[in-house]
Amino acid sequence: MLVTADSPVAARRIAARLLRLDLTAPVQRDGELVLIDTVYDGEDLAEVGQLTGLGPDGVIAAHTGQIWTVAFAGFAPGFGYMVGRTRTLRCRGAAPRAPRSPPVRWRWPETIRPCTRAARPAAGS
């Protein structure tokens, strides 16, 4: 979740309210579906379309045609890694190149690995 405020006063009011939340409540697995308006205009849309064999319109149809669930939260606040119910958006052919970053001891699970060949420099490099 990304929380924004339109002024420093509003940000302090929001922060105070967030600090009062009960974070010990049990995890709710069922609930209302959250719909997120999305604009498909990213510079990598054509590349993902090529890697999946779907083309740009097929990527959009595959993405909007299924329900997504947050598998885990990322390092940036509010950034969740999503998993879909189908495997339609899997990359075909050669595996994508890993982004340039220091070596780590984990790998992307098949269901959530990035679908891009473009190597991007690690933050701060």
Structural account:
The chain is an alpha+beta fold and 125 residues long. The chain has one domain (30-117). It has helices spanning 8-19, 45-52, 55-64; strands at 68-73, 80-84. A two-stranded antiparallel ribbon has the order 1-2. Helix 2 packs across helix 3 (55-64). The model is unreliable at 116-125 (pLDDT under 50).
Count of individual beta strands:
2
Low-confidence stretches: 116-125
Tell me, rounded to a whole number, the average pLDDT.
76
Strand order of the largest sheet: 1-2
Total number of domains:
1
Order of helical and strand elements: HHHEE
Envelope shape: elongated
Residue share in helix: 10-25%
Structural category is alpha+beta
- Roughly how many Å is the radius of gyration? 18 Å
Strand content: 5-15%
Largest sheet: 2 strands, antiparallel
Cα distance spanning the termini? 27 Å
Number of helices: 3
Secondary structure blueprint with pairings:
Blueprint: H1 8-19, H2 45-52, H3 55-64, E1 68-73, E2 80-84
Antiparallel strand pairs: 1-2
Helix pairs in contact: 2-3
Question: What descriptive keywords fit this protein?
Answer:
125 residues, alpha+beta, two-stranded antiparallel ribbon, 3 helices, single chain
What's the quick description here?
With 125 residues, the chain is an alpha+beta fold. It has helices spanning 8-19, 45-52, 55-64, and strands at residues 68-73, 80-84.
